[in-house]
Design brief:
The protein is α/β, with parallel strands linked by helices. Helix content is 40%, strand content 20%. The strands form 2 sheets. A 5-stranded parallel β-sheet has the order 2-1-3-6-7, with helices on both faces. The chain has a two-stranded antiparallel ribbon with strand order 4-5. Helix 5 links the parallel strand 6 and strand 7. Helix 1 packs parallel to helix 6. It is globular and about 55 Å long. The model has no long low-confidence stretch (mean pLDDT 96).
Length: 192
């Protein structure tokens, strides 16, 4: 069975993003072996001076981070669920990516450019945005970052499912937008 890594960066119990992601993940779990990484209670540390010293001078990275980065590199698919925060996504997701960016595991270098080492062919990003900001807008910085990360790690095609203007809609309209995003996601999941 193919492997799928699900990175859940939803921080709230009542997460609208999670309401979209849950049925899509249930469908994908019927065809993939799923490993879920919950970031809401994680203790990933920002890659600071001490961590860089450990990585670059002492050549030390904690075994659990190496093992997780290897599982990401070996995944056939990656799904990320993260709400729109501060024009991008929650900072813990960036911290997570920094911890997983390990030389000769998720990427390498030719001394002229980076080369992705992940075997993932497709990445799915599920999000909700409180404001009326569309994917591709210069005000939305999560998608450009994920595309750049895809290049660095070799993650393949990025598909985005989003519902927007959620903070300024009635509860009924929010439910409709979530249902539409779930429908889109389930359609994608059939052949993804």
């Amino acid at each position: 069975m193919k492997k799928l890594i699900y990175i859940n960066a939803c921080m709230r119990e009542e997460s609208r993003t999670q309401r979209i992601a849950a049925p899509i993940m249930k469908e994908l779990a019927s065809r993939y072996e799923v490993e879920t990484i919950h970031l809401d209670k994680s203790d990933f540390q920002p890659v600071d001076r001490d961590i860089l010293h450990q990585r670059n001078i002492e050549l030390y990275v904690p075994d659990e981070l190496v093992a997780m980065a290897r599982r990401i590199a070996e995944a056939d698919r990656i799904v990320i669920a993260a709400p729109f925060w501060d024009m991008s996504f929650p900072s813990i997701l960036k911290v997570f990516f920094e911890n997983m960016s390990l030389f000769n595991i998720t990427f390498a270098s030719t001394d002229k450019e980076c080369v992705g080492l992940c075997r993932c062919e497709k990445m799915l990003y599920i999000t909700t945005r409180g404001m009326n900001i569309s994917t591709g807008s210069p005000l939305e910085q999560a998608t450009p970052y994920l595309k750049a990360l895809s290049h660095l790690w070799g993650l393949g095609e990025l598909t985005v499912i989003s519902a927007q203007n959620m903070d300024y809609s009635t509860p009924e309209t929010i439910d409709l937008k979530i249902a539409e995003a779930v429908k889109e996601g389930l359609s994608i999941a059939k052949t993804w």
